[in-house]
Amino acid sequence: MAAQNTVICDIKDEYDRACKQLDVTTNKYIHAALDKLNTQTDFDPNRLDLSFRGNHKLLCDDKRLNDDDVKALVECLRDAVNIYRLDLKYNSIGNEGAKYLSDLIQHNNSICYLDLQMCDITEDGAENIAKALQDNDSLMGLRLTGNKIGNRGGMHIAGALQVNSGLQHLDVNECDLTMESIIALSTVLRSNHNILSINLGRPLLYSVQEETQVHLGQMLKINRTLRELHLMKVHVCDFGAERLAAALHENNCLQELNLSCNRITRDGVRCLSDMLLKNTTLEILDLSYNKMEDEGAGHMKRALEGNFTLKSLNLKYNHLHGPGLQLMADALTINSSLDVLYLWGNHTDEEEVAVPIHELIISGRLRPNNTDVISYIVDERIYLAELPNGPRKDYYTQPIDYEVKVTNEAIVAARKHASRTNQSQNYTELTNQQPEEDNQLTPPTPTAVEVES
């Protein structure tokens, strides 16, 4: 504890000295966050995880960090050799602050993860960060989610990846990338052998020709390093799904594919199902918020009958009715490897749907912490209710002590619902079980620790 206090006090003293030297007003939140870190039982003085999130409950008077605060913080941390992770998301950091941070990662080789999610960084800030990446091989994870870096910023990041050999996890989701920058990133990933996960969600695409999916498919045929590919809201239609599926026939490395919030129908699902019959590495497939419908569920059932690698499947909000959901329930009785299945948002109010799902839950084949539905009985009729469970995304960017803590919440919610209605003995037994350790798909070894609020 003495060593812990010494390390934190030294950082606070350096920060105060930097503020005085730069004539910057001391931000009380930085002191409060460091004091919070001082109380952590798993504190490691040689591997500090500094979290100054702008949405933290310790935030004083909504004084989020601005560019001046970042300037003083960078001056404080410039020569530190024990900073492992720096979390600055949800702050008012603009291009000037990004310039200071780029200077930090150029000179500090101890920082492995930098989280700048939902700040105010645009093209110029992304350019400075990209230039810093060209001279830095120690940074392993960079998160720029929600910063409007646009096409020019995306092109600079792509250029940096041609030189950088250390970055493994990149998140440029909702960064207003365009087709040009998506294609540039896809092209770079053909020869980049370091990136393990990338999130390209919600670019600004105006073409209906799905050029980006063609280039991503060509990349997947060549790349043998990428483990996670997130393509939410990328306007993937059936042709794009076909291109990606064809590439995954030849790819034996990708473990997670996220195609949620796209325009994939039964024809695209048929191509993906054919791919699942041959692919032996894909473990997580997210098709939520598409339009596979009952015929698509038939294709997926056929795939699950012959695929014993897939462990998690998300089919939320896919316009499935009774026959389609029945097909998925039948598939689970045959497939023994699929542990996680999400179905809420389909037409689960139909009684013929509730019965097979209820049987899967009662039998233990579909565990409450591995799905987002739970069954209950009122007046001798079975109904399905939603559980607050969801897929675990971005495994590589999660803190090392990250756990999905939804099972307890789900069981508590079920008990509350049961107290308002007359439930069957089976349902009572289900909800009276003790919360269990989460047994969802174990992610690859995560790589960051977050100071919990």
List keywords for this structure.
13 strands, globular, disordered C terminus, alpha/beta, 15 helices
Detailed description of the structure:
This protein has 453 residues and is of the alpha/beta class. The protein contains 15 helices and 13 strands. It has helices spanning 2-22, 28-37, 67-77, 95-107, 123-134, 150-163, 179-188, 211-222, 238-248, 266-276, 293-306, 322-334, 351-363, 407-420, 425-431, and strands at residues 48-51, 83-87, 113-115, 141-143, 169-171, 197-199, 228-230, 256-258, 284-286, 312-314, 340-342, 373-378, 381-386. An eleven-stranded parallel beta sheet has the order 1-2-3-4-5-6-7-8-9-10-11. Strand 4 (141-143), helix 6 and strand 5 (169-171) form a beta-alpha-beta unit. It is globular, with a radius of gyration of 24 Å.
Low-confidence parts: 393-397, 399-453
What's the helix count?
Answer: 15
Name the beta content range.
5-15%
The main pleated sheet reads as: 11 strands, parallel
C-alpha-based Rg, rounded: 24 Å
Distance between the termini: 20 Å
The total strand number stands at 13
- Which word captures the global form? globular
N-to-C series of helices and strands = HHEHEHEHEHEHEHEHEHEHEHEHEEHH
